[in-house]
Amino acid sequence: MKRMFDIILSTLGLIVVLPLFPVIAVWIKFDSPGPVFYRGVRAGRFGRPFRIFKFRTMVADAEARGGAETPADDPRITHAGSILRRYKIDELPQLINVLCGDMSLVGPRPEVMDEVVLYDHDERELLRVRPGITDWASIKLRHEGEILRGSTDPHRMYHEKIRPEKVRLGLEYVRNGNSLRADIKIILTTLWELYLD
Fold first, then answer.
1. pLDDT class for 143, splitting at 50, 70, 90?
2. Are 107 and 6 in contact (CB under 8 A)?
3. pTM of the model
4. Potential cystine with 42: which of 2, 84, 90, 110 (Cβ 3.0-4.6 Å)?
């Protein structure tokens, strides 16, 4: 049921947002040199790597200039990228990942491979399900960039201020909240918090 739900909603979502993609693509290209999409490697279900679809929000060589953690005042973020990030528009292409089966609409956010290899026994439970576009942690910690703003060591602050709660909420979903009803509630709450509140 969950997979069918993902296929139907991601297809409908792409039909709705696809007309915006060329406009966003032109904006990104005019704003800074580089590709339209960011295709970083993430850990999928059972730890299998896949390439995520995101609109590029940083300079083309961002990975060579810094780590995966991104404060709101990170100089690598482009002007267009700051707006795309604020409204999570950069995440919309992940509907393609959902349709392909790499991701789900709802589930723990996919992590970089370097982070996943450090998981302890309990944390590896996060890999039992497909990673998602949104979850309770995405909602609660939606201002992650602001939390990291001004940090001289974003990686350390992420591990101290964000990661523990992100993992706790992810494990809670995997163990207790992995249901169609819970997914619908999370999706509606995400839309409310991002665009209606």
1. confident
2. no
3. 0.92
4. 110
